[in-house]
Amino acid sequence: MKDGQLATEQESNALCRTIEGGQCVAWSQGDAVSGSSSVGIMLVTKAAVAMTDLDGKEGQYHAQLVSEPLAKELAQAFAEGLGPSLVVSLSTTRGLAEGVIGIKLEESEYPDAALYFEVCTEWSS
Amino acid sequence: MRRLMLGCLVFGGCLVKDNPAWEDSGAEASAGSTGVSGGASGTSVTLPSTSGGEDSGGATASQGESTTAAGTTTTAGGEATGTGATDGGGSTGQLAMQCTKSERPGGQAGRGGVRGRGVVPSSMGSPCAGWGAGTAPDCGALNFGATGFFRLVNDTEKGKNAALLRFNGEKVAAFVQDAGVDAADLLAARLELVVYEPLTEPAQDSTLEIGMLLGMTRPGTWG
Predict the structure, then answer these.
(1) Domain map of chain A by residue range?
(2) Where are the alpha helices (DSSP H) in chain B?
(3) Which residue of B43, B83, B117, B143 to mutate against A (max A Cβ within 10 Å)?
(4) B94 touches chain A (CB under 8 A)
(5) Helix (H, G, I), strand (E, B), or coil: what is residue B91?
(6) Which helix (H) or strand (E) holds A115?
(7) Residue A30 Cα, gap to closest chain B Cα (Å)
(8) Tens of pLDDT, residue by residue, chain A (125 residues)
């Protein structure tokens, strides 16, 4: 679901990894959210937002934040061409009355999501 | 010693920057210089510059959740020493090797090319009033709007919403290969996102959880 619209051809949703010719090609794990394995977190804090707010507009922020180091398994899955998908959600409850929080994707005004890797260059023998 | 990864590779970006959230988690802020280009998508942005200091790249979350690549200490040049990562050992009787020096992040592996899609598990209810009624979804109040914004609702009554990110797995794998990195030397990945709230600053700290799904990659398709 994007922009309040249900997933359609060549898109994904909770149950369909993709939709091809109107047919749902299911995730092997079943449900995308409950079937995903946690690989780490991203902290959204006042300090982080203050340092990374992209526009400084009054009454709103667009903070370009970087996650904590995510599991080695994720990096290796990318390196090995397994093509992992990422599921980003709130880890704690946040009622609808508590305000909106979300992420920007595929919106030209803001940089799209990016990946970085950490690599060991020396190992003890 | 294994192979050395050189930074600033592929997709036109060079990034060695801080995660300011670490300051809240008790870790020292990190070092580095920025000047990031948008990369493959053509989008360009300059990130706030920082300088000096040392970094503990693998901070522990302030909410008490642990992360996976903890213990790294990174210098201003992006190199790290004394990481807590180990490798090998196992049941063969070999001694586990410990990473004594690392680099991060080495460059953007995948800006652009995201196939972002929201995910709303039907089993967890709907965050949008009116959904499922057979009419146009009433998500206006939830600010899905007409842009690529995903509200991360997680309400016990209204349901859970998540954003689904699908990088071009082939490009990412090629990036790693082109950089001459042995997959066994990869310690961790980091994800960069633009987070939005209609507030000047967060009224409360939040933690976003990042999950991994292994899809059924096929030739010619993204992971």
Answers:
(1) 1-36, 38-125
(2) 21-24, 169-178
(3) B117
(4) no
(5) helix
(6) strand A114-123
(7) 10
(8) 444 556 677 777 777 887 889 898 888 888 887 888 999 999 999 999 999 999 888 889 999 999 999 999 999 898 888 888 888 888 877 766 666 788 887 777 888 888 888 888 888 87
